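Hi C.,

You asked whether I'd gotten around to modeling the 372-residue construct. I have! Everything is below, sequence then structure, no commentary in between.
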Amino acid sequence: MPTPLMSQPAEGTAIRPTCETNPAILAVRIGPLEISPPLFQAPMAGYSNYAFRQLLRRLGGVGLLCTEMVSARGFLELDRRYGKLPERLWGVREEPRPVAVQIWDNDPDKLAQVAERLVEDFHVSALDINFGCPAEQITKGVACGAYLLKDPELVGKIVSRVVRTVSPVPVTAKMRLGYTDHQLTACEVARVVEQAGGSAVFVHGRTAQQKYRGTANWERIAEVKAAVQRIPVIGNGDIRSAVDAVNNLQRYRLDGVMIGRAALSRPWIFREASALLAGKTPPPEPTPEEQFDLIREQYEVLIGQFGIPKATILMKQFLCRFIAFRPGSKHLRVNILHLSEPHEILEAVRRFLLATKSPINVSHSFASTRPD
């Protein structure tokens, strides 16, 4: 195993890369876009909505934000029958750039139609195609997501069709190592994406069969990097801290790191990692009062989009991740699940944050949570 480049620092000390032969990468080019820092927010169903993206944007340090995955068929059907757009696109037109939209399907023409609309009507910065979702309703149900890793030829047709439709807007692919341990097709699929005109690949270090079990295999991600010649490879999976992000970026000589689950409990992880990449001391963790302000503002944005009932469901879902790994979090989870009024939920969170000022324990396993 490679030697770690960094260790967890003592409180208040600067953290700097110690491997002079492998300096930090401060930016990555994806098509015509220069993404700096090379830190990417993972699209996560149920979490990476407009409110969460704005929270991350306010904290800083994210190179590229991305929506939740949007069904191409759902987009077209909503438009045809009701003249409406998917809720997951709410806010995309107005939010600052760069921002990417992730789309999914197995039909090249439908994906191209939706991609064209997103470029023409929403002026998105990039389009990401989902070849990585392991959920059975997506894979076995409709043969999409990570199921497509079994068919590299179809992946190539999809990417080529979308690239021809929206060029020069960059088209990227999110994938896993393969469908099963016996079908590790990531290297082949990455080469196909490159040959089809794709601008980058994001690789999660598990197979679809693993779903959320085990640990991400970054050695396999490094093999994908070695398999392509021109396009960036961004690694993803089990990043628990800013130190993890920088270590993995440098150790495996990748072009960037995508962070998902850790950003739910530590949304400021991006600004910490960004500082480390620049050789600077990371800024301090937000105070309990500042964390509460972030939560309150996020809740207000959700209410503005969805109304109180649905916003409250989404906020509870997020809060269960946000408070994870903190002392006493189980009691608060049980408490807020029985509350329905925004002011009651916010007051419970405020009391909890002010009472638990100890650092978040990021050493716990993520096995029970949804992956990035």
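If it helps when you're writing up: Confidence is low (pLDDT under 50) at residues 1-22, 362-372.

Thanks,
B.
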